[in-house]
Amino acid sequence: VPAPVVEAPVLAAPRERAALKVARRRRRRRRLTGYLYLLPMVALVGVFLLYPAAKTIWVSLTDANGTSAGSFVGLDNFSRLVNDPAFRTSVRNTVYWVVGALVLQVGLGLLLAIVLSNMRAGNWLKRLFYIPATLSGAAVGVIWFYVFNPDNGLLTSFLEAVGLGGLTTRWLAEPPVNTFAMIFAAMWQGLGPAMILFLVGLQNLPREPIEAARVDGAQGLRLFWHITLPLLRPMTAVVVAITMINNFKVFDLIWVMTQGGPYRSSETLAVTMYRESFVSFSVGYGASVAVVLTLVVLLLSVFYLRSMFRRVEVH
Amino acid sequence: MRVTKAAVLVLAAAWIVPLALLVVTPMKSFEEYAGSSQWALPHDPLQLFDNMKAAWNSAGLGPGFLASLSYGLVGAVVAIVCGALGAYAITRLEIRGRFWWFLLVFSGTLFPFQMYLIPLFQLYTDTSLYDTWLGMALFYSAIATPFCLFVMRGFFSTVEQEIEDAARLDGATSWAVLWRILMPLARGPIAVLVLFQFTWIWNDFMFGLVLSTSDGIRPVMTSLAALQGSYSTAGPPVVLAGALVGSLPTIALFLLLGRYLLSGLTLTATGRNA
Predict the structure, then answer these.
(1) Which end of chain B has fewer CB atoms < 10 Å from its terminal CB, N or C?
(2) What is the DSSP code (8-state) at residue A72?
(3) Residue A47: its chain B contacts at CB < 8 A?
(4) Would you place residue B230 in the very low, low, confident or very high pLDDT band (cuts 50, 70, 90)?
(5) Does A115 reach chain B within 8 Å, measured CB to CB?
(6) Chain B interface test: which of A24, A50, A106, A142 (most B C-beta within 10 Å)
(7) With bands split at pLDDT 50, 70 and 90, how would you rate the model's confidence at A310?
């Protein structure tokens, strides 16, 4: 039996094993470096966003109030919501907000984008329409709080000057006019972003189908309805989703203009959540409103993300 | 077409009027404002400065202005650094579950903010972060981070691997590669992020309302709401002067750097819904 055949593996194995060990250690160290890079981001987001979000779900299942953490009550808060007239008003107002924003911000935003894309002064007007969007919701609320002043406000004075004084009312005190008034103020702020996104969408439209349709004699409204609008659909989906989601969550504007009043008549889900949690200190109940709000927003986000991914495929 | 253009011009005029109110009303004295319609022009426009000064000194608006300035800058920088470190790990370093780490952090943009309020308030009162500069700065950094991760990850994955490999062969550490090579290349996206996150933090109202209460800690928009609120004695010209003071930084940023802000908007639309 030749000796080296037996000897060689015995000698090689430890060396190989050592090399492997070194390589593994090096890889582990490199991986550790990777996790160290992740750490600050994950810690920040985990402590200040993800942990609170998870905890809210738990709180919504308890009867916590301002002084105690409460005990587990199952879905009681949610069944209480269904029969709460204030919550129903809040849901109705939230629907007003979302539908109103869809019609006004998306509809008007699209029209405006189409007209401005064909206008020479378009660039200046674009900037003008976008300026309100750089203001905060609180500042917009303050401005429109005075615009709707029933004594000498811009709107009341204007209507009186053109002989429509009979239409004036206490804009922010009369439901449901107060909600409509605030939706209008939000449109003043939100129209610019919707318009800009549609302008981006219009710019990125493929040229060929439109040219082809033109050659075939399509013009004006027909061209727009049958060619431009379908091509614009991915961007429309994005604008619709963003507008809906944003208007589901409006808080600062309402809080500054009416605080959800008078008598909780102009609350939306976001305001109801705040009032229950931080004014009435029904913390568990407030958390359940937050969970309902989240469920709706996540549902909308799914549609939105899906349309986004489809957009990626198209590109 | 002429009719639609005229309609757009009318609409533009309607859009200017509330902005004009924001500028013109602070030029009036209280008596002047109360005695006439809001459409009336001011007698003495220089009263603007008196009203702005009065607003600055009421309801903690001035200290809030300075506080928000620091929150906006610190929050944006911290978020970009954290986001860039994370994005570098996710796109370049050897870690397990890259996509899941991304998804975990990015999910922070999906929840409505109401989802954070109660536990944050409890956490802050339990740890004495409540009503402190540090508490506000930490929160603003955290809420700005997921979007920074999204943008930086997108950018890093477009940078060619060869650049990095060459530097590595010359003995550069991952830290050096990130700070000396990748971050300088990312100047454009970083500018957009600073602008966008600063504006967001500056305009925040709700978290300031829930997490702070004293002058100098409370951010500018929450102070503005206090100036306007039912316990305030300031008249409309002073309140609108406050709104004007609080809005000047973001309007100025938009007029100077509007192009970057708008590209940030497009990024948001295609990447984030908050």
Answers:
(1) N
(2) B
(3) 123, 142
(4) low
(5) yes
(6) A142
(7) low
